[in-house]
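Q: Sequence in, structure out?
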Amino acid sequence: MAYTRGTSTNIIVGAAALFVADTTLTAGTLPAFDATESYRDTLSDDGDFTNIGYTMNGLELQFQPDFGEVQVDQLLDVAKLYKQGMQVNLATAFAEATLENLLLALAYSNDELSGTKSSSNGQTLNLSAGDIGECPVERGIVAVGPGTGDCEDSAYVERVYAAYRALSIENVTVSAKRDEPSMFEVSFRLLPEDTSASYGKIVDRTWAPAS
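A: Exactly. Output:
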C-alpha cells in the first residue's frame, strides 16, 4: 500500500448536541438508529430525553485508569504494572441557564422543580439539602456530534456518545455577572451498568434522508 500523509476526513471539528434521559440506560434501552434521520431527531422525538440546548466549551470525555506497581530488588524502576481501577468523567457547560438545566446539573430529582414561569407563583426549584440515606440521582446521557469519514452524496456522518449511568459530582456555580453569561459548568462521573459492566459506547454512523 502506498504511503499517504493522512486522511483529512477523519479530523473531527464541531460541537455535539447533548441529551439527558430521565433514567439510566442500557444498550437495550437506547432508541434504535433510523437510517433516514440523524440521531438528534430520533432523540428529540423520544419523550424520555431532554435536549440541553446550547453548551459552551464542547464535550470532554476523560478516561483515568489507575495502575498498581510491582517493585523488585534487582530493578531501580518497577518490574510490572497492573490495572487496579478505572474512572470515566464527562464534562461540559450548560449555556442555557434554565431551572431545568440547573436541576440536571445538581442531580436533583424532578420532584424538586414545580410550577411554570407563566403561573402566578412562577417556576420554583427547591434547593434541598437532601436527607440521610437518600439515593443519588443517576441519568443517562447521549451526545450527537460530527463523525469521521466522507459524506457520500446526500448522506451525512455523525458520532454518537452514549453514557448509561451518569452522576453529577462536582461543584456547580450559579452566577449573575455583568460581563459574563450565566452558565452551569458540570462534570458527570460515569458508572458501568450492571449487566455488561460497560460505561456506554461510541458509534460512528452514516445516515441519508429519505428521498
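The chain has a mean pLDDT of 92.
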